[in-house]
Design brief:
Helices cover 41% and strands 21% of the residues. The longest helix is centred in the middle third of the chain and has 22 residues. The protein has 849 residues and is an alpha+beta fold. The strands form 8 sheets. An 8-stranded mixed sheet has the order 6-5-9-3-2-12-15-14, with no helix packed on it. Helix 9 runs parallel beside helix 11. The site of ligand BES has 16 residues, from strand 20, helix 2 and helix 3.
């Protein structure tokens, strides 16, 4: 458990491994308490390396025997692995180890979930399966033999002999150990097939526990769509005869891109109308695409070391966003991504956990699968594409695949293909990868004699370990509107590279109104003296859907901040301007639903913090509630018509059009339930034929404290469905009135179905409490103590999931002294706990700063 002095790993210390692996053969004799793993690995000295230390990673393994070229050897064992004397020439290493998958509660390596064997090896889980150079720059082909009496036994690649009790798999593509996977159990498949555009026939299987087959149609459809899309848009074909996906109930993350054998958290792949919301369907489609896209961006071209994680994750998130934009509505997807970035990445980048998209050091790599590496990493690629243009982007990416197929690469390799195709110098752009923190961009305008000038100033506040910041390349997409609302300058990309920089626009007969940062063209905080009249103008006239939405959002923030700070009434001008947009039948219902959404309470806390004001969670909650009520009152006459528009007459489908309507309906219901005390919500709960409408209704009833009957009925109906019960646990806490949220969470942890070792169930309760902003931040600190207590408990079983959840404390320094002291105490109690994991140890140390 706790390392005496946990080691810090640095990017600058990278050296290649002293040996190459020419092939791996593994044999698994499966047994819950005593699985035997035999390995046969062909090593040869690596001509590109100077250090010939033969060190193999290995953790929690019992070594039974080891031999080199058939002669038994006695390696030196440590907690982290082994070293051994080896020949100065190619040799074959053989070892046998014993492991206990049934006792593996960390869900890394080989473990069991509901009687089924499965693996999770990224990032450093393979070392819990056998001794191996468990680093992504060691790539090898794998031949796997599995022995057990279970009916289904899977591994990577193409199937070989599949005889009673034995299954063989051969993966012809060299891969790093983190992409290894094995699954065995009593499983059933939905099967289909796909023919690649060059004519390869691929068998597709989605494996689930018996009983879940009815939830597999959507996942399979999403897989086929993803495969076609990657051929059409990136020219990338699938490269094996089978593609298997397995759904697993106990899984730390959403899903994993193991070569030819993707393993999914069942919540990220199983869906049906009765059990899943529209948001679940959309997320599933995106995750299937994401993991499938990794086959090229991650698997065929992988990372040299874990510092390069954004090379595969940032790029693959960018690709899955493009995919979703194509399948659904591009503006709605973009706005959703911006909301998500600001809600998760901005707080990270402006607090104690701030780190560059490519970090320079870590103790536990699991702690760096972050919104910064993923979402900011994807934004960086979006900026690159904007700067070089779509055609050059396509050329550069094609060169990347051609030049680096089969290699383990770095961000330098990635940027080099862009430099080579465009002739551009990207050294300043590279700061997006090395410099942490959210740049702030302020704007000033002047207008003189038909010349309009925009002056930008950029500045990035200091972040942990980085006090001096250099100017970055900020692509700022700008359009100009005339006072009459006409677009006088269509979108132009300005490149802000200096600390201060001006751009002039001539022949402007009238002073134009700027539409700035169109499409959210750079992940910055745009500081602009809020001018409500201008925002209302843009809300009415902007042609850029993101800027139009952002204008409304800016007005909402302004109004809410004024309510929080001096108890002002909601801004009537904003509500009237918004009303015009929301009731405009020419606009997409999904877009109107986004327009109706108020900033969340934590987003307001973030906005206040960015303005230098200490957020008061109770005042924020009161201001939001007062604003929602005022909106409901003001729009009362429009609500029945909007409800009607949101009604879906056709049979349920989770497509963009229908989900847009239901999203609008859900916004309307939340307003209506402010006026009718919940009767419409009750009626909807009774009548709903899908989970989207059911859950929306239930949330309102919980908030109004009249959900007892509905909750009981829901539980009776769904007690045997783990994924639906996660929703049942979550909504009671998420939507609870803030003062009782902690007690609700506490009571639910006593429920017989609260299996806290299941990551989904643990997150359903703890994540829901954290998302209830005023509930979690209750002034007496009960929320903090409750969470810290459970994190301490989970840390002993599952450090990865516990440490991730600890990020709930990342904003602790922005609150008042009392709350700060209470959060600090909660964190210190964690820090001082004996047997703290490396994951949690590093996390808490960084949080405390
Ligand atoms: N490679 C990751 C899964 C992973 C993350 C494994 C951390 C080990 C440690 C996978 O490709 C991934 O990124 N999954 C995301 C979902 C995706 C849509 C962003 C996840 O699991 O949340
Ligand atoms: Zn990924």
């Amino acid at each position: 458990m706790k390392d005496a002095s946990p080691q810090t790993i640095y990017l600058k210390d990278y050296t290649p491994f002293g040996y190459v692996v020419e092939g791996v053969e593994l044999t698994f004799a499966l047994a819950p308490e005593a699985t035997r793993v035999k390995s046969r690995i062909r090593f040869a000295p690596n001509p590109d390396a100077t250090d010939r230390t033969f060190f193999l990673h290995g953790e929690d393994l019992t070594l039974i025997s080891a031999a080199i070229d058939g002669t038994p050897v006695t390696p030196t064992l440590t907690e982290q692995g082994l070293t051994c004397e080896v020949p100065d020439a190619p040799f074959t290493w053989e070892a046998e180890v014993e492991i206990a998958p049934a006792k593996n509660t960390a869900l890394e390596g080989l473990y069991m979930s509901n009687g089924m064997y499965c693996t999770q090896c990224e990032a450093e889980g393979f070392r819990k399966i056998t001794y191996y150079p468990d680093r992504p720059d060691v790539m090898a082909t794998f031949d796997v033999r599995i022995e057990s009496d279970l009916p289904v036994m899977l591994s990577n690649g193409n199937p070989g002999t599949q005889d009673g009790g034995v299954a063989e798999w051969h993966d012809p593509w060299p891969k790093p150990s983190y992409l290894f996977a094995l699954v065995a159990g009593d499983l059933e498949a939905r099967s289909d097939s796909f023919t690649t555009r060059s004519g390869r026939h691929v068998d597709l299987n989605l494996w689930v526990r018996p009983g879940d087959l009815g939830k597999t149609a959507w996942g399979m459809e999403a897989l086929r769509t993803s495969m076609r899309w990657d051929e059409e848009v990136y020219g990338r074909e699938y490269d094996l005869d089978v593609f298997n996906i397995v759904a697993v109930d106990d899984f730390n993350m959403g899903a994993m891109e193991n070569k030819g054998l993707n393993i999914f958290n069942s919540s990220a792949v199983l869906a049906s109308q009765d059990t899943s919301t529209d948001a679940n369907f959309e997320r599933i489609e995106a995750i299937i695409a994401h993991e499938y896209f990794h086959n090229w961006t991650g698997n065929r071209i992988t990372c040299r070391d874990w510092f390069q994680l954004c090379l595969k994750e940032g790029l693959t998130v960018f690709r899955d966003s493009q995919f979703t934009a194509d399948q659904r509505s591009a503006p709605v997807k973009r706005i959703g991504d911006v909301i998500d970035l600001r809600a998760r990445q901005f707080p990270e980048d402006q607090g104690p956990l701030s780190h560059p998209v490519r970090p320079e050091s870590f103790q536990e790599i699991n702690n760096f699968y972050t919104a910064t590496v993923y979402e900011k990493g994807a934004e960086v690629i979006g900026m690159l594409k904007r700067l070089v243009g779509d055609e050059a982007y396509d050329k550069a990416v094609a060169l990347y695949f051609e030049r680096h197929d089969g290699q383990a690469c770095t961000i330098e390799d990635w940027l080099q293909v862009f430099e080579d195709t465009t002739g551009r110098d990207l050294s300043q752009f590279k700061r997006w990868y090395t410099q942490s923190g959210t740049p702030r961009l302020s704007v000033e305008e002047s207008y003189e004699g038909a010349r309009y000038t925009l002056t930008f100033r950029q500045r990035t506040p200091a972040t942990p370990g980085q006090s001096e910041k250099l100017p970055q390349v900020l692509p700022v997409a700008v359009g100009l509107l005339s006072p009459g609302g006409e677009e006088v300058l269509p979108t132009q990309l300005l490149e802000v590279t200096e600390p201060e920089q001006s751009f002039t626009f001539d022949n402007m007969p009238d002073r134009p109104i700027p539409s700035l940062l169109r499409g959210f063209s750079a992940p910055v905080v745009l500081e602009r003296e809020s001018d409500a009249a201008e925002q209302a103008f843009l809300l009415a006239h902007d042609t850029d859907p993101y800027c139009r939405w952002e204008a409304g959002r800016g007005l909402a923030r302004g109004s809410l901040v004024a309510s929080v700070v001096d108890g002002a009434d909601p801004d009537g001008a904003w509500l009237d301007a918004l009303q015009a947009v929301v009731t405009d039948p020419a606009l997409d219902p999904a877009y109107r639903a986004l327009m109706m959404g108020l900033p969340t309470q934590s987003e307001l806390a973030q906005a206040l913090y960015e303005k230098g004001i200490t957020p008061d969670p109770d005042a924020i909650r009161d201001a939001v509630e007062a604003t929602v009520r005022a909106t409901a009152d003001r729009w009362a006459d429009d609500l029945p018509g909007l409800s009607e528009e949101a009604r879906v007459a056709e049979p349920y489908a989770p497509d963009a059009q229908q989900s847009g309507k239901r999203a609008l309906g859900t916004r309307v219901l939340s307003l209506v339930s402010r006026l009718d005390g919940g009767s419409a919500a009750e009626a909807q709960f009774e009548a709903a034929d899908n989970m989207t409408l059911k859950l929306a209704a239930l949330g309102n009833l919980v908030r109004l404290e009249r959900a007892d009957d509905a909750l009981a009925a829901f539980e009776a109906q769904w007690k045997d469905d783990r994924l639906v019960m996660d929703k049942w646990f979550g909504i009671q806490i998420m939507s609870a009135p803030a003062p009782v949220a902690v007690e609700r969470a506490e009571a639910l942890t006593g429920h017989a179905a609260f299996d806290w070792t299941n990551p989904n169930r643990f997150r359903a309760v703890m994540g829901a409490l954290v998302s209830n902003h005023a509930g979690f931040h209750r002034a007496d600190g009960a929320g903090y103590d409750f969470l810290a207590g459970w994190l301490a408990r989970l840390d002993e079983k599952n450090p990865q999931t516990a440490a991730r959840m600890a990020t709930a404390f990342q904003t602790w320094r922005r609150y008042d002294d009392d709350r700060q002291a209470k959060m600090r105490a909660a964190l210190e109690s964690l820090r001082d706990k004996p047997k703290l994991s490396r994951d949690m140890g590093e996390m808490v140390a960084r949080l405390l700063g």
